[in-house]
Amino acid sequence: MPTNRIDASVSAADLQAIRDAIATIRQKLPFLVSLTVDERRATFKTGSDSLSFVTNAATAAQGNPDIFPASFDRQAFQRDFDLFGVLTALSTEIDSLAADVDDTRLATGGETMQQSIQVYDYVRSAAKTEPGSKAVAEQLAERFKKAGSPKPAAKPSA
After folding, report:
1. DSSP classification of residue 157
2. Nearest to 121, CA basis, from 131, 111, 133
3. For the chain, which has fewer Cβ within 10 Å, the N-terminal or C-terminal residue?
């Protein structure tokens, strides 16, 4: 990955505008739910294999209103069908945005790590001649110590 592929910042005002936009989305979709793991397992999944079935069922419900008992709310079914379509389109757009945000975060993190290693190298070099740099170099060196490295056994006292 090229160094400094991304050189950008987000102003405090822009960050607040983004957060406000997210809040607006949540406000415009007040019916959003958070399912538990068990609820997710128990829910019928409407993937690509089932989409044509659901679409055909919606068409059948519209075209044959007289065959349904009064207990079946065709209008509620149609609203759910329409909402599913809208949420599917929104989900695609939001997933794409989330993937772009995550990829940019990953790339920026990689660049930051490369630059941090350069900083570490400069600090290590400076620690040889500059007073006070040794403590900073030791602090930065903690990142490269292996967590599982065996410690030397204590010598028994005689």
Report:
1. P
2. 133
3. C
